[in-house]
Amino acid sequence: MKDFYLQVELNPGFKGMTESRQQQDIVIFIAPPGAGKGSISQKCIKELGWEQLSTGNLCRKNIEKGSELGQKIDFAIKSGRLVSDDLIVAMVREWFHENPDRDRTVILDGFPRTVPQAMAFKAMLTAEFPLTRVRVVQLKVSDEELIRRLTSRLTCSNKDCQQVYSLLESSGMIPKVDLECDICKSKLTQRSDDNITTVRDRLSNYYRHEEDLLNYYSSVGWSIIQVNVESSLDKVFDQFKSKLDV
Ligand SMILES: [Zn+2]
User: Fold this and answer.
1) In a domain, 216, yes or no
2) Does residue 19 sit within a domain?
3) How high is the pLDDT of residue 154?
């Protein structure tokens, strides 16, 4: 396979930096929409003291800083294009260099989204952070359950709130008053892409990417840990902790 890392525009300022001295743990979730990745990540942060690196937030921060990277990202977004793999990887790389020697496990959120991103990330770790241990957590859930969850989801119509609720008893996210947001009292609506036809499309699209990423992760020897997420969040989290030995 071609090494995409070579295409990444590297910031020359990093040359000669000392590499991280202690092992860094990284967790990558691979999960379809509605599997509960967000809830599990929140528990990892609150209960295990982990941190989350979100590429969405990184984009915003870089734009705010007005750095060279930020300007390029801002330009891509304003011209209606996707932020390129090169820019995303360069931004993640910068974050790892600016935050060396952490003892906290880092969850990657929104990254790697594609195999080229994963390849560039792997190349960077091998070259610059060889002590890193990456574990991939695959959340397993049947399509029927995902469809049930996604089509039972309601979102607050207030753009500044957007709190998510569920009509399922098991979710623990039922609104106190029917169709009204607990927080801001605005009306709750179903997202237009949470209907059954769109959900099926989103899932089949998702599985195509998932397969490619999983094949790549196993080809580079990253361990893939499967967690079944069809029970309650507490049970899922117990299973998660025991499988990752944390
Ligand atoms: Zn609200």
Assistant:
1) yes
2) no
3) 93
208 or 225: which leads in pLDDT: 225
Tell me the pLDDT tens digit for each residue of 174-183: 999 999 999 9
163 Cα–ligand 1 center, Å: 5
As for how many domains the chain has, the answer is 1
Residue 53 CA, ligand 1 centroid: distance in Å: 26
CATH number of the domain to which 157 belongs = 3.40.50.300
Residue 128 CA, distance from chain mean position: 22
- For residue 193, the CA-to-ligand 1 centroid distance in Å is 19
For residue 162, the CA-to-ligand 1 centroid distance in Å is 6
Please tell me the distance between residue 155's alpha carbon and the centre of ligand 1 in angstroms. 8
Give the distance (Å) from ligand 1 centre to CA of residue 218: 42
Torsion of CA 217, 208, 43, 83, to 10 degrees: 90
DSSP secondary structure string, 194-240?
GSHHHHHHHHHHHHHHHHHHHHHHHHTT-EEEEEE-SS-HHHHHHHH
Give the per-residue pLDDT at 16: 42
d(CA 159, ligand 1 centre) in Å: 8
Tens of pLDDT, residues 78-91 = 998 888 999 999 99
* Residue-averaged pLDDT of the chain: 88
The Å distance, Cα 178 to ligand 1 centre, comes to: 13
